[in-house]
Amino acid sequence: MVALAGDGVGPEVMAPTLRLLARDSALQVLERPAGYGAWLDTGRTIDEPTLELARTADGVLFGATGTPSPPPESYQSPILLLRRQLRLVANIRHCRRPGGDLDVIMVRDCVEGLYSEVERPIPDGYRADYRITRTITRQLAAAAASIAATRRGVVTVVHKANVLRHSDGLFRATAIEELAKAGVAHEEALSDAAGYHLVADPDRYDVMVMTSHVGDILSDVGAALAGGLGLVPSLTTGDGPPLAEPIHGSAPDIAGTGTADPVAMMLSAALLVERLGHHAFAAALRTAVNAHLDRRAGAPATRWRTVEVYDDVVRRLDSLLAAAEAVAG
Question: Which of these, 4, 116, 162, 217, has the minimum number of CB atoms within 10 Å of its CB?
Answer without folding.
Answer: 162
